[in-house]
Design a protein that fits this description.
This protein is of the alpha+beta class. It has two domains: 64 residues, Winged helix-like DNA-binding domain superfamily/Winged helix DNA-binding domain (Arc Repressor Mutant, subunit A), CATH 1.10.10.10; 155 residues, Chorismate lyase. 26% of the residues lie in helices and 31% in strands. The two termini are 37 Å apart.
Length: 245
């Protein structure tokens, strides 16, 4: 078999072929791919060309290569949308995985300057604070650190968060009409790394979210994800409008 001609480079044609097979489910996560030698014979091209295609698939996170063993289809990191507040429990269970949430803190604290500004309260004013870890199949994928405006949600601390996660309660209780998302690449603190069961040298994605209802701030939450376990993304139409998925 020889790849099709045309203007597309040979390595790109091989790369697209392998990627499409993975996308179609012909090769599933964890399954071993043909060797470089087999791909060279199959496509009738040089080993250097095949090697470049495989290296680019590795860079894209589509496959992993183990020296002396071979190439394997990578486990795809779950992706969460930036366009809405996602119910992690539902999202994880839809993938056929087990979900759990461990609440670490639910308390009232004095608002720092940053929190006070975000929630439009006075510095030092009492606000609600919660911290929890979300787990997928027993592995932490998100550390959630949340501040809530008690003027909008006065009974936040009285909730039984063993039955529903804080974001689920807030979405059901407060009809927010404005949302802001900001994503940063950061390194975790030693404490955060411990809670996420990860190497402190591994980068994280930090999603900072604020919500409002009728112009009044409801919550400030920072969601920390190990970059190797999660990704964030959105899809838009050519007009710039979000595409529902």
């Amino acid at each position: 078999m020889r790849v099709a001609g045309g203007d597309v480079a040979l390595f790109q044609q091989v790369k697209d072929h392998i990627a499409s097979k993975i996308q179609d489910g012909f090769w599933r996560a964890g399954e071993r791919l043909p060797t470089e030698h087999e791909l060279v014979a199959q496509f009738g091209i040089s080993r250097m060309t095949v090697n470049r295609a495989l290296r680019e698939l590795v860079a894209q996170g589509r496959i992993v290569r183990v020296a002396g063993v071979g190439s394997f289809v990578a486990e795809q990191k779950p992706q969460s949308t930036l366009l809405q507040i996602v119910n992690l429990a539902v999202e994880i269970r839809q993938r056929g995985h087990d979900y759990a949430c461990t609440m670490l803190v639910v308390e009232r604290v004095s608002a720092s300057l940053e929190v006070a500004a975000a929630l439009a309260v006075r510095t030092g004013e009492s606000v609600f604070h919660s911290v929890c870890v979300h787990l997928e199949d027993g592995l932490p994928i998100q550390l959630e650190d949340r501040y809530v405006n008690p003027n909008v949600v006065p009974d936040f601390a009285q909730q039984d968060f063993s039955q529903q996660q804080p974001s689920e309660f807030l979405v059901r209780t407060v009809p927010f009409d404005e949302i802001e998302h900001v994503v940063d690449a950061v390194l975790p603190t030693a404490e955060q790394a411990l809670r996420l069961q990860m190497d402190p040298a591994e980068p994280c994605l930090l999603l900072t979210r604020r919500t409002w209802t009728k112009g009044v701030p409801v919550t400030l939450v920072r969601c920390l994800h190990p970059a190797s376990r999660y990704r964030l993304g959105s899809r838009y139409s050519a007009s710039g409008n979000p595409v529902a998925t």
